[in-house]
Amino acid sequence: MIRDILPGAQSWQQLLALVLAATIVMGSPGPATISVTAIGAAFGLRPSMRYTSGVVFGTIAVLLVVAAGLAGMLASMPTLAPALTVASAAYILYLAFRIAMAPPLAEGANEAARPTFLGGFMLAVANPKAYVAIGAVFAGASSQADGLGMSTRLLVLAAMIVVIHILWLLAGAVFARLLRNPRAARIINIAFAATLVLTTALAVLP
Predict the structure, then answer these.
(1) CA-to-CA distance for 193 and 154, rounded, in angstroms?
(2) Which of 7, 37, 104, 198 is most exposed, with minimal Cβ within 10 Å?
(3) What is residue 195's predicted lDDT score, i.e. its pLDDT?
(4) What is the pTM of this model?
(5) Measured at the alpha carbon of residue 59, what is the angle toward residues 54 and 62, in degrees to the nearest 5?
């Protein structure tokens, strides 16, 4: 009976270790998470769901690429990695500008300017931190005694991606309540835009 209980306990320990690692590594500030918070602050909770969904699905796509072992093959292509980095940096600068210039929510003039699902997806796929963070968590989980199957690890990490980005979005939505005042809106939006550019630079630069 003890032998039957111990493997289950070990699996739970590995599951908790995987969740903790994902929370610390994947949940830390980066281009995707900061952009979700900034979009939530600039445009409000509901209008930001489309962009956030794009980031979530894009990050899950990165997870599948890493799990399939394709990340190393993509990194070995001499022109692809720099091209993705440049495209990601260019879009993030454009996104940061739109966030900094977003009008106060009370003006109701920002519907046409809200970022799209495709924009969020492309940012996540081209986000260099996502490959490093997910690769580190996935490698750490694989190096332990494997009481968790591949499908379980993928489902847990996919769920963590959803939870992490929703929490970052909710944090931004809290700031959105302060953005009815034009002066406060401009200050907070510019601060988020600058933070987004800074986290991107830290993720891209060696």
Answers:
(1) 32
(2) 7
(3) 80
(4) 0.75
(5) 130
